[in-house]
């Protein structure tokens, strides 16, 4: 208890002790023979002609690849732009042809049936049952 009280008065906290230990350990690593030998080897490699040529070649290859990919991207964007500006409904199917198709007729009939069941026979303020209709058809379907 006395030692921890002295450390506290000197401003030494557990965190500052860890920091000091890490700093001391790093200094020990940097002055070790293994570190100094590896560092010298890496310096030798970095200053070698083979390393410099490889670095230059890879740099040029990266620049050329980047330029090529940019060109491809521009071409694709241009082609997509051309395709979207040339497209119109005339190219897909004409409206009269579509309206006369069996699929459209079937869809139109279903929508009409749903409208009749929801709204009834009303049109422009008429009542749900027309005066001509004596016995309206009852249908218990949800739509």
From TrEMBL:
Record's keyword annotation contains Coiled coil: yes
Family: Belongs to the TPD52 family.
Region (Disordered): 122-143
One Pfam family here: TPD52
Listed name of the protein: Tpd52 like 2b
Keyword Coiled coil: yes
Origin superkingdom: Eukaryota
Source organism (scientific name): Cyprinus carpio (Common carp)
Ranges of compositional bias, category Polar residues: 127-143
Keywords in alphabetical order: Coiled coil
GO cellular component, one term: cytoplasm
């Amino acid at each position: 208890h006395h030692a921890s009280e002295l450390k506290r008065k000197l401003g030494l906290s557990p965190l500052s002790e860890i920091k000091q230990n890490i700093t001391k350990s790093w200094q020990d690593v940097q002055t070790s023979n293994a570190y100094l030998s590896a560092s010298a080897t890496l310096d030798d490699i970095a200053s070698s002609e083979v390393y410099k040529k490889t670095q230059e070649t890879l740099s040029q290859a990266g620049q050329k690849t980047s330029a090529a990919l940019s060109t491809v991207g521009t071409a694709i964007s241009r082609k997509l732009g051309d395709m979207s500006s040339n497209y119109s409904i005339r190219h897909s199917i004409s409206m009269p042809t579509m309206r006369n198709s069996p699929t459209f007729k079937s869809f139109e009939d279903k929508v009409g049936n749903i409208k009749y069941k929801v709204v009834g026979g009303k049109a422009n303020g008429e009542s749900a049952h027309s005066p001509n209709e004596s016995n309206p058809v009852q249908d218990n379907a949800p739509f």
